[in-house]
Structure formats: structure tokens, C-alpha cells
């Protein structure tokens, strides 16, 4: 009997117009696509249904009323990769709102990070997010992928100029995510986490 692929949520944490998050997330999703042990589920906080649910917009959109809630989407996944920029030495407010909007659905699941920004490459945002996810009983992964001076790191087609080293960093992160994701999925199935 083969093991079903891990359902990995790629959470795009920026909602700013003109964001680089689309480029970074698209590249990372393509890296996951190279594997057969994972399937990708993108959770973009700028999606109309999520923006409405989280009240990230000032006006109501025409989001479908039957769209799954954020909690339902998080609940059905085995692990996550948060794609986050660094704004003013921290992570975006919309991302904090989305994380806090759900609670038990994060528990006993692994969370990895792909960050981008200026000289720090988003690492200050990641360090803050580690504290937040620890409080939610999620397991954060040690290794990350980060893009320093990110707007200079991608070509016109959205590929990193240094595909070799970024691809290796992504592979390390995804290998860790696979191990933790499978281990924690099996653990939750054998003994529900009530911490």
C-alpha cells in the first residue's frame, strides 16, 4: 500500500498590490511540483473569499458564499510553508491576522518558511513567526529559503538567477517538511494531539 502524498499548504502572507510574493510563491510551488510525495494547496490571503473572511478589504467582494473557510483549509492539510516578506523588521499584519484566526487546526503540524526582503532576506520576520507558531503547538523547521535583496534575485520569467543554490535550499526544506509531515500525520492518526 503506497503512502498518500502530503497535502502541503503554501500560505502567501502579503496582500500588498504589486507584491513580490507571487513570484516567490510560484517558484516555490514549482519546486514542490518536482516531488511525488507532496501535493500543493496554495492559500493566498488576497483571494476574495479569504480577504472577506478576514476582513482584509474595506468593501465586500463578490467572493462565492460556499468557499471553504480558512480553518477548514488549514485543518485538511498536513504541513505548511509560509511565504513571507519582511516589512519594517517584521511580518505582515494580514499574516498575523490569518494565523490567529485559526487555532487548533495548526496543532502538531510542521511549518517551513520562504522569506524575502532587503539585506536580512526576511529572516527577522521568520524568527518572529517561529515564536507565534510555537504558541500554536506547531513544529517549525530549522532550515529556510530566503532571498536577500529579493527584487534583484529573479529574472523576467520569475526564476531565481541562482537556481542551483536556491534549488538546493528548497530541497533541504522540503526534505525536512516531508519527514516531519509524515511523522506528525501518522502520530495524529495514531493518537490525536490534545496538548
TrEMBL record:
InterPro entries: Flavoprotein-like_sf, FMN_Rdtase-like_dom, NAD(P)H-dep_reductase. One of its GO terms (molecular function) is FMN binding. SUPFAM superfamilies: Flavoproteins. Pfam families: FMN_red. Residues 7-151 form the NADPH-dependent FMN reductase-like domain. Signal peptide: none annotated. One of its GO terms (cellular component) is cytosol. Transmembrane segments: none annotated. This is NADPH-dependent FMN reductase. It comes from Streptomyces caeruleatus.
Amino acid at each position: 500500500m503506497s503512502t498518500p502524498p502530503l497535502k502541503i499548504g503554501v500560505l502567501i502572507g502579503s496582500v500588498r498590490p504589486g507584491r513580490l510574493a507571487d513570484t516567490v510563491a510560484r517558484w516555490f510551488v514549482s519546486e514542490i511540483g518536482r516531488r511525488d510525495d507532496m501535493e500543493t494547496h496554495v492559500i493566498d490571503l488576497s483571494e476574495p473569499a479569504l480577504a472577506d473572511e478576514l476582513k482584509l478589504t474595506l468593501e465586500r467582494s463578490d467572493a462565492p458564499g460556499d468557499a471553504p473557510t480558512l480553518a477548514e483549509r488549514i485543518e485538511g492539510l498536513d504541513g505548511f510553508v509560509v511565504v513571507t516578506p519582511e516589512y519594517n523588521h517584521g511580518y505582515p499584519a494580514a499574516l498575523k491576522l490569518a494565523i490567529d484566526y485559526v487555532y487548533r487546526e495548526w496543532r502538531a503540524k510542521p511549518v517551513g518558511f520562504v522569506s524575502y526582503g532587503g539585506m536580512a532576506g526576511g529572516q527577522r520576520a521568520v524568527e518572529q513567526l517561529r515564536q507565534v507558531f510555537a504558541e500554536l503547538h506547531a513544529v517549525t523547521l530549522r532550515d529556510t529559503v530566503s532571498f536577500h535583496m529579493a527584487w534583484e534575485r529573479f529574472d523576467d520569467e520569475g526564476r531565481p538567477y541562482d537556481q542551483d543554490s536556491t534549488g538546493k535550499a528548497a530541497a533541504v526544506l522540503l526534505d525536512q517538511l516531508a519527514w516531519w509531515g509524515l511523522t506528525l500525520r501518522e502520530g495524529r492518526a495514531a493518537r490525536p494531539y490534545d496538548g
